[in-house]
Design a protein that fits this description.
The complex is a heterodimer of chains A (335) and B (501). With 335 residues, chain A is mainly alpha-helical. Chain A has a two-stranded antiparallel ribbon with strand order 1-2. In chain A, α2 packs parallel to α13, α3 packs parallel to α8 and α12 packs parallel to α14. Chain A is globular. Chain A starts with a helix and ends with a helix. Chain B has 501 residues and is of the alpha/beta class. Chain B contains 18 helices and 22 strands. In chain B, the strands form 5 sheets. A 6-stranded mixed sheet of chain B has the order 6-9-10-3-11-12, with helices on both faces. A 6-stranded mixed sheet of chain B has the order 18-19-20-15-21-22, sandwiched between helices. The longest helix of chain B is centred in the middle third of the chain and has 16 residues. The chains are: A mainly alpha (335), B alpha/beta (501). Chains A and B meet through α1, α9 and α10 of A and α10 and α11 of B.
Chain lengths: 335, 501
């Protein structure tokens, strides 16, 4: 074989490896398209799919920061639920709220909950050198406990209708579709994810995130305050998680203390599938969205094909393993 | 005599590079064979093929005349080919005996047979004349780097290796420890083991090796008996051209005081260290490994906090609590080990180049100035003549010398006025060294200050304007360029011990 074709083959293989998630996504879409005899491609289903992706997209976007730092956050599901509970409790105080008035009732509690939870885990990890897995495991348990305390153990209900404007509302009303085509939640999440993507790819802070995750010692010796970087990474991740939580509450029009349980696994799977390395130093919010899409397509497709939802969990478990193996394989080709 | 290991017409192609072209070398039992060449000459690739890490694209490896087809390093080890890597590969939390038997533990039924492993380790250590210094039950972490290396050698002897490959075994050893290592190499030799010895240090090659093979750009250049070749010829065939003197020294004009250190102390590492560095000079810091030089430099740079003492920059007292503070005062530090503390290996050249400077070139809302990053990275790529396809290349793929240039570029871009260089040319080849010295001289000519820690005496003597010698945490002397000789430095570098004795 000539050197040239050898190069081309290697480059091709490299390209496929790097974009494996896209290949998988396309294969899944075609597979489910055929498997459901086209039902999958129904416009309503596609729109539905985007709302199903929304929560995981927010969680994964935040988690990407922490995983690039070489850490992990398994508390995102609990933090999301806590924000949902608190936001709905606050919503109860404003029975007269308007559609647009619901936005601060969603965002302000989300930011508060996110900053408080994120600061706590961030502080534990960056200043007291607690292993990220343990610190966020503690937060996972504690935040879940707080959910039940604040909600009194039952779902917060009787929330004003306007509260669901972002989570369940739609716009672009046409004939025959009086509820509207485009879900507000999709628009909201696309904007948030875009902001987080741009922040992560273009700001100095985020270059420092990559540097810290890539080699903490090198970053420290280059004058970067790595403790601060790790701290703020966790705050950002928790704020994103809390935003996901209020969106979920708005979508369901109730504050469930048991909401988002196990969502951290979907988020980790999506992030890693999207090519963010679990060892830190590389990844991107944009690519994590492909991972989010893969998981949403699998769930949606299996629903359409009436696969038992317990089996869906088994499949997601397998996907997580597959994603990690893929990550390791990529490492090997890099070396 | 029959060669025990033969590389026959070996070629190895990686995507985009031909690392080896038609290399044929014979290795005989009981000989120490030096493998020489600049970085990128193909030495590492060759030893990886010989030890089963890579499969050759063309050609074959013969072991005692039989063709070998190694699938994994384990296969090679089972045949008696062992590698002692530059980075030690022992399990630091296990004991000496456990390390010696790692992977081939003796068992008694289903239980470990600790007693016989400890006894056998004791035998090995006495054979190596290391009994009384290393005990089988010592935890590896508590041993010095040199002693850990001895444990690796004990492991190799225990495995009955026929071929031992040593990849820059002396890079972290002091002169005294190197002598101890050579003793062990002679032991291996007496057992008819073939030793492949890779080192950049010519002095060692002439001391311990019997024959030397030179590779250049992946091709075989020559194999000679050490007794029949001169140092000059060896270097010339490595670089492919005649080199007169690769220590470039130009006269510098010493200016005002830039950095003054007074009574700097960190208990157990160094005590009462005082010296001054001036604008426009290269101040060499010499001493044996373990003299506290690196620790002192890291403390000046703010990576460690001193117990007592004071640092002055341009006459002003400073109190650095992190490298960030030192960088703000225009101090840069090239660390001892670029792979673990100098570079983000899996990041691009440009990301590495601008890392400390990003914060000073921020646009509105904290956005990074990508245009500036590209411009300045390209500018320094040209200025320092970094051989890289683009500034977007992953830095892991560059040779050691070019990686080191990027580390330097990093601090030049950060506009450092005082550069601390810790073993700046370790593990880089002669050509790259000479280029690096030129860059150092340029920096000093433009009014910079360099403080260079080096364990290589010829380098200290060849490059420094003034030399400070440290020993066991103390400054034991200061020499001008004119008065410095190898003997004087060595005397100062071991004074404390002799006083104590």
């Amino acid at each position: 074989m000539s050197e040239n074709t050898l190069n081309k083959n290697a480059a091709m293989k490299n390209f496929l490896m790097r974009n494996m998630v896209v290949v998988i996504l396309i294969a899944l879409i075609i597979g489910f398209g055929v498997g459901t005899s086209g039902k999958f491609f129904n416009m309503a289903n596609i729109v539905n799919l985007t709302t199903q992706m929304a929560i995981n997209a927010m969680l994964s976007a935040g988690l990407t920061y922490v995983i690039i730092l070489g850490g992990i956050d398994i508390s995102v599901g609990s933090v999301a639920a806590l924000a949902g509970v608190i936001s709905t409790e606050i919503a109860l105080m404003f029975p007269q709220m308007t559609n647009w008035g619901s936005i601060p009732v969603l965002i302000i509690p989300a930011i508060l909950v996110g900053v408080i939870c994120g600061s706590f885990t961030g502080l534990m990890i960056s200043r007291f050198n607690v292993v990220a897995m343990i610190a966020t495991l503690a937060m996972l348990t504690a935040a879940r406990g707080l959910c039940f305390i604040f909600s009194g153990g039952t779902a917060v209900s009787g929330i004003p209708k306007a509260y669901s404007f972002i989570g369940a509302g739609r716009w672009l009303v046409t004939e025959g579709k009086a509820t509207g085509w485009i879900p507000n939640i999709t628009v909201f999440v696309i904007i948030m994810v875009l902001i987080m993507h741009i922040l992560l790819s273009r700001t100095v802070f985020c270059r420092h995130v990559y540097a810290t995750g890539s080699n903490r010692q090198v970053a420290h010796l280059a004058g970067i305050n790595t403790k601060n970087v790790i701290f703020w990474g966790h705050v950002l991740c928790s704020v994103a998680a809390a935003l996901a939580g209020v969106l979920n509450a708005s979508k369901l029009a109730s504050g469930q203390p048991a909401a988002c349980e196990g969502y951290e696994m979907y988020a980790i799977a999506a992030t890693v599938l999207g090519g963010t390395s679990l060892t830190g130093g590389s990844g991107s919010v944009g690519r994590a969205m492909f991972g989010v899409a893969v998981i949403a397509v699998i769930n949606n497709g299996m629903n359409l094909m009436h696969v038992n939802s317990y089996w869906q969990k088994v499949v997601i478990g397998a996907i997580i393993l597959f994603a990690v193996i893929l990550d390791m394989a990529q490492k090997k080709t890099k070396n | 005599m029959q060669p025990c290991l033969q590389a026959i017409h070996i070629s190895k192609v990686f995507p985009g590079v031909k690392a080896l072209t038609d290399v044929t070398i014979d290795f005989y039992p009981g000989e120490v064979h030096a493998l020489m060449g600049e970085n990128g000459a193909g030495k590492s690739t060759l030893i990886k093929i010989l030890s089963g890490v890579y499969t050759p694209t063309e050609g074959k490896v013969l072991f005692n005349g039989e063709e070998l087809d190694f699938k994994t390093p384990r296969d090679a080890l089972d045949h008696g080919i062992a590698v002692i890597h530059q980075e030690l590969s022992i399990a630091k939390d296990l004991t000496v005996a456990e390390n010696v038997f790692l992977g081939e533990e003796k068992v008694n039924g289903i239980f470990l047979d600790n007693r016989s492993m400890i006894n056998r380790t004791q035998e090995l250590l006495s054979y190596m004349k290391m009994d009384g210094i290393i005990h089988p039950n010592d935890v590896a972490r508590d041993l010095t780097a040199a002693q850990q290396q001895m444990v690796e050698i004990a492991r190799v002897i225990n495995k009955n290796a026929k071929v031992v490959i040593m990849d820059e075994p002396t890079s972290s050893l002091s002169d005294h420890e190197i002598n101890a290592l050579f003793e062990q190499i002679r032991v291996l030799k007496s057992q008819n083991v073939a030793v492949l010895y890779i080192s950049h240090r010519l002095k060692e090659i002439f001391e311990i090796c019997d024959r030397a093979t030179v590779l250049r750009d992946g091709c075989f250049v020559r194999t000679d008996k050490i007794s029949e070749i001169s140092e000059h010829d060896l270097v010339a065939s490595m670089v492919g051209r005649e080199i007169q003197d690769y220590f470039v020294h130009t006269e510098h004009k010493r200016g005002e005081e830039m950095l003054r250190v007074e009574g700097l102390t960190r208990k157990g590492e160094f005590e009462n260290v005082s010296f001054t560095a001036y604008r426009g000079e290269i101040l060499g810091i010499s001493g044996l490994v373990g003299a506290g030089r690196t620790e002192t430099m890291e403390t000046i740079f703010g990576a460690r906090i001193p117990d007592s003492g004071q640092v002055f920059v341009s006459g002003q007292p400073v109190h650095f609590t992190s490298p960030k503070d030192a960088i703000a005062k225009k101090i840069g530090m090239v660390t001892e080990d670029r792979r673990t503390t100098g570079l983000m290996l899996s990041a691009m050249v440009k990301d590495n180049s601008v890392l400390p400077s990003l914060i000073y070139h921020m646009k509105k809302f904290g956005f990074a100035d990508d245009k500036w990053i590209d411009e300045v990275s390209n500018e320094y790529k040209e200025k320092l003549r970094v051989k890289t396809p683009t500034i977007e290349t992953i830095i892991r793929n560059l040779s050691g010398g070019n990686q080191q240039k990027v580390v330097l570029a990093k601090w030049l871009i950060a506009e450092s006025q005082i550069l601390i260089l810790d073993e700046p040319t370790r593990g880089i080849d002669v050509n790259a060294k000479s280029e690096f010295y030129t860059l150092m001289n340029n920096f000093v000519d433009q009014g910079g200050t360099i403080i260079m820690v080096s364990s290589e005496l010829p380098e200290i003597l060849g490059v420094s304007d003034r030399i400070i010698v440290m020993c066991e945490g103390h400054v034991t002397g200061e020499l001008t360029r004119e008065e410095a000789t190898e003997t004087k430095i060595m005397q100062l570098a071991s004074t404390v011990s002799s006083k104590q004795n």
